[in-house]
Design goal:
Layout: E1 4-6, E2 13-15, E3 20-22, E4 25-27, E5 31-33, E6 36-38, E7 41-43, E8 46-49, E9 54-56, E10 59-66, E11 69-71, E12 74-82, E13 87-89, E14 92-94, E15 96-99, E16 104-106, E17 109-111, H1 114-117, H2 121-131, E18 132-134
Parallel strand pairs: 2-5, 3-6, 4-7, 5-8, 6-9, 7-10, 8-10, 9-11, 10-12, 11-13, 12-14, 12-15, 13-16, 14-17
Antiparallel strand pairs: 1-18
């Protein structure tokens, strides 16, 4: 059986390992964080937090994948995923919540239906399809 691998295509900005940012970040596109960010993030696209990435602050994005550590509230417009190596300490809001075995959520979760939030389900499905690809 082939193991599924995350696809990080369509990422417009990357915060590399060893990079520390103190301050708020806003982005119209998708972003990947492998470094450290202390501040609030307002991302119109998708947010991918790599295994070595850490965020301390409030996070808002369309879709969120956490493989690193988050300290603070987080809100995904559609999909929120905590990978096996991921941990979040804080409350989360999302339409879809996935916690892989080994992933940690230390806080409360609030989920709403896509129709209640006026969300385009086609966007959610496309994100899910693009996230994994065969090796």
């Amino acid at each position: 059986m082939r193991k599924k691998q995350r696809s990080f295509q369509n990422i417009e900005s990357i915060i590399s390992p060893g990079v520390e940012i103190k301050g708020d970040i806003s982005s119209q596109g998708s972003i990947r964080i492998d470094g450290y960010v202390e501040g609030n993030l307002n991302i119109k696209g998708d947010l991918i937090l790599g295994e070595k990435g850490k965020i301390k602050g409030e996070v808002k994005a369309e879709n969120i994948i956490v493989a690193g550590k988050v300290e603070g509230r987080a809100s995904a417009g559609t999909r929120f995923e905590i990978a096996a190596t991921g941990a979040i300490t804080g409350d989360i809001n999302a339409t879809t919540l996935i916690v892989e075995e080994g992933g940690l959520l230390d806080g409360n979760s609030r989920m709403t239906r896509a129709k209640e939030r006026g969300i385009d389900n086609e966007r959610v499905l496309n994100f899910k399809k693009e996230k994994y690809k065969d090796k």
